[in-house]
Design a protein that fits this description.
Elements (H helix, E strand, L loop, with lengths): L4 E4 L3 H10 L3 E4 L5 H7 L6 E4 L9 E3 L3 E5 L4 H5 L2 H6 L1 H8 L4 H4 L4 H6 L7 H7 L3 E5 L4 E5 L4 E3 L2 E2 L6 E8 L7 E6 L10 E8 L2 E7 L6 E2 L1 H9 L5 H6 L1 H4 L10 H20 L2
Parallel strand pairs: 1-3, 2-3
Antiparallel strand pairs: 4-5, 5-10, 6-7, 6-10, 8-9, 11-12, 12-13, 13-14
Helix pairs in contact: 5-8
Length: 276
């Protein structure tokens, strides 16, 4: 592993100031992606900045606006948080699909988003839940809709000096069932070949997919078929997902295989959430 300087900070202002001033600095909360990337040469950091003790990043609470999840909160804490389990079990399923139990003791929601993988498992669920990403910079705070946060493979809407602080799942919470369906080579330990989240909102449904485009995406064509055209033939509705996606071939599956998987998982999801 290339040599780097380890630095720890305990305040948001200190962290954003360092991120603005220093080149080659990379924040670390759980480190499950970062340290692997450093060892493999994917990442090159002059400074690794430990941010996991910043209080704002450790928040996990339900308030007037909804449920707020700090960027450094481990996935297992999210899974076991009663308001999440009660109101947004879709996110529980997505978090649980990541890695092993021991990995989830370290891996964070903020890291899963900031890694900006097209296959990020939590992103499709957050898309369906209308999540908001709270970002801090050296001089201001701002909120970004989650669908605007990941801008490309490995790229986010964070500007120089900015740090993802938390994610808010706003009220009102969805009414209806939600499911996250994941196909991968070796089960949850591996990255998704295709991941599909569906969340019923009353009589309508929201659908989002991962690993089928440069960023996670909403399946707007399928949503239109179900929500506006009242199509109840789930085979025909799921077939429209081909309009929304643009998968590639890689070691986790061919382009054609991903088209097939996306259609199958969307159909299965519709059967589960719409027929209850």
């Amino acid at each position: 592993m290339p040599a780097f300087t380890y630095q720890r900070c305990t305040s948001l202002s200190e962290a954003t100031g360092l991120l603005e001033r220093q080149e080659g600095i990379m924040p670390m909360a759980g480190g499950t992606d970062l340290l692997v990337g450093l060892r493999s040469g994917k990442f090159n950091a002059a400074v690794v900045l430990d941010i996991k003790e910043i209080p704002e990043l450790k928040v996990l609470e339900e308030g007037r606006r909804g449920i707020t999840i700090g960027a450094a909160v481990p996935l297992n804490e999210i899974i076991n948080f009663a308001p999440v389990r009660q109101h947004i079990p879709l996110l529980v399923q997505a978090c649980r699909s990541i890695g092993t139990y021991s990995i989830r003791n370290r891996a964070t929601l903020g890291g899963n988003l900031c890694n900006a993988s097209p296959a990020a498992d939590t992103a499709p669920a957050l898309y369906c839940l209308g999540a908001l990403v709270n970002v801090a910079g050296p001089r201001n705070l701002r909120t970004v809709p989650v669908e605007e946060f990941i801008t490309g493979p490995g790229k986010t809407a964070l500007q120089k000096g900015e740090l993802l602080v938390s994610v808010t799942i706003p009220k009102p919470y969805p009414v209806g069932k939600g499911v996250y369906l994941k196909a991968s080579r070796t089960g949850s330990v591996d990255l998704s070949s295709v991941g599909v989240a569906l969340q019923k909102w009353g009589k309508e449904v929201r659908i989002a997919l991962g690993a089928v485009a440069p960023t996670p995406i909403r399946a707007t064509s399928v949503e239109k078929a179900v929500n506006q055209e009242a199509l109840t033939d789930w085979y025909r509705a799921a077939d429209r997902v081909k309009i929304d996606i643009a998968p590639i071939s890689d070691l986790r599956g061919s382009r054609e295989y991903r088209y097939h998987l996306a259609e199958v998982l969307v159909r299965r999801g519709l059967e589960q959430v719409m027929e209850v």
